[in-house]
TrEMBL record:
It comes from candidate division WOR-3 bacterium. Keywords: Membrane, Transmembrane, Transmembrane helix. Residues 23-157 form the YutG/PgpA domain. This is Phosphatidylglycerophosphatase A. It holds the Pfam family PgpA. It comes from the Bacteria. One of its GO terms (molecular function) is phosphatidylglycerophosphatase activity. The chain crosses the membrane at residues 21-50, 56-74, 95-119, 144-164. InterPro entries: PgpA (IPR026037), PgpA-like_sf (IPR036681), YutG/PgpA (IPR007686). CDD domains: PgpA. The lineage of its organism: Bacteria, Bacteria division WOR-3. GO terms for biological process: lipid metabolic process.
Length: 167
């Protein structure tokens, strides 16, 4: 009889929204007007470069940001719409996953970045399918899977071109 009322986003307090936008957008790099995911990934390269030499810290940071990112991405999706471009904490995690146990030189960092962006943009079918997971899980998981693909290909590249490894 009556029109269906869409589910309303739970009201986020100003402070909570600010903090979630800060973390969820990769320290506001997700607000970059052009290619915010790529901008965030570039922003994360420096910490990823150093964390690649500290595998325990790299893994701990990626896992922590993943589990912090799922509820934040869920909340921000309710405010900004389905898989919003401003949410880039998933790019932060994907970048860290790409360089996990891959200590690279500066050239290797560039190759890893290109591989990561390739797999994130092209989205192989199983990566694309993971976006159907509900809320923040779908936002975060596709970038983790793209990061794993980039990590594996980067390993192969480093085997073939050891000059790209950190010495």
């Amino acid at each position: 009889m009556g029109a269906e009322v869409p589910e309303q986003a739970p009201p986020l307090g100003r402070t909570r929204f600010f903090l979630e936008a800060l973390v969820g957008s990769g320290l506001f790099t997700g607000y970059f007007p052009i290619a915010p995911a790529t901008a965030t990934s570039l922003f994360v390269l420096l910490p990823a470069f150093f964390l690649a030499r500290l595998p325990v810290w790299n893994a701990a940071t990626a896992v922590l940001l993943f589990f912090v990112g799922v509820p934040i991405a869920t909340d921000l999706e309710r405010v900004w719409g389905k898989d919003p471009h401003r949410v880039t904490i998933d790019e932060v995690v994907g970048t860290l996953v790409t360089f996990f146990l891959n200590p690279v030189s500066l050239w290797g960092l560039g190759v890893g970045f290109l591989l990561w962006r390739f797999f994130d943009i092209v989205k192989l079918p199983f990566i694309d399918k993971s976006q159907r997971l509900p809320g923040g899980w779908g936002i975060m998981m596709d970038d983790v899977l793209a990061g794993i693909c980039a990590n594996l290909v980067l390993r192969l590249v480093l085997l073939l071109l050891p000059v790209l490894r950190y010495h």
